[in-house]
Specification:
alpha+beta, minor pseudopilin epsh fold, five-stranded antiparallel β-sheet, 3 helices, about 25% strand
């Protein structure tokens, strides 16, 4: 019986060289067709990912302020060193080791600001891409305001854009601390 199994296995085992070459050629052709489409969408996916991470980080800062029962400032740096934001936990107005920081250059060509002319409330978009002085403070109760001694703002919005993408993402925080995200497709005046 083992002889018959060995003979059957010998006759039926593996692929021929031609079958293998045809499969490799098909994979190559399908990859050549699909790759440009995937690479073309990459800048938009990076911008969307940056906006979603900013949204999540704003919620994280609010929760951290409530949990630790102290104010947490989120500072947006738009200097020539590159766009980044960080949680200013020690209130030094400078980034110090141990504070959470995220650089926008991790996402490729993503930067503060975009080509939108008005925000979802009809107000003008600031040229820096960040409302007011570039910082946002979450109080111990989770409320949001623009800077240390200010009254609570109606809404604080950060805009993200890219030269490679004809879209704009806006992450906003209401004075109650609620974080929301909206986007605008190139040239459109409506925010979704």
């Amino acid at each position: 019986m083992t002889e018959r199994i060995k003979r059957y296995a010998k006759d039926k085992a593996g692929f021929s060289f031609m079958e293998l070459m045809v499969v490799i050629a098909l994979i190559g052709v399908l990859s050549a067709i699909a790759l440009p489409s995937l690479l073309g969408n990459l800048p938009e996916k990076r911008l969307k990912n940056a906006a979603r991470n900013l949204y999540a980080d704003m919620q994280r800062a609010r929760l951290q302020a409530v949990k630790e029962n102290k104010k947490i400032s989120v500072r947006f740096d738009t200097s020539t060193d590159g766009d980044f934001y960080y949680f200013d936990i020690d209130d030094s107005t400078n980034f110090t080791i141990g504070e959470f920081r995220r650089n926008l250059y991790e996402y490729g060509d993503v930067r503060y600001g975009c080509n939108a002319s008005t925000d979802w409330n009809g107000n003008a978009v600031p040229s820096s891409g960040v409302t007011e002085d570039g910082s946002l403070v979450f109080s111990q109760t989770g409320m949001a305001y623009l800077y240390e001694d200010s009254e609570y703002a109606d809404e604080i919005i950060v805009y993200l854009g890219s030269d490679d993408v004809n879209a704009c993402y806006a992450v906003g925080v209401t004075h109650f601390g609620a974080v929301k995200i909206k986007w605008q497709r190139g040239g459109s005046s409506s925010w979704d």
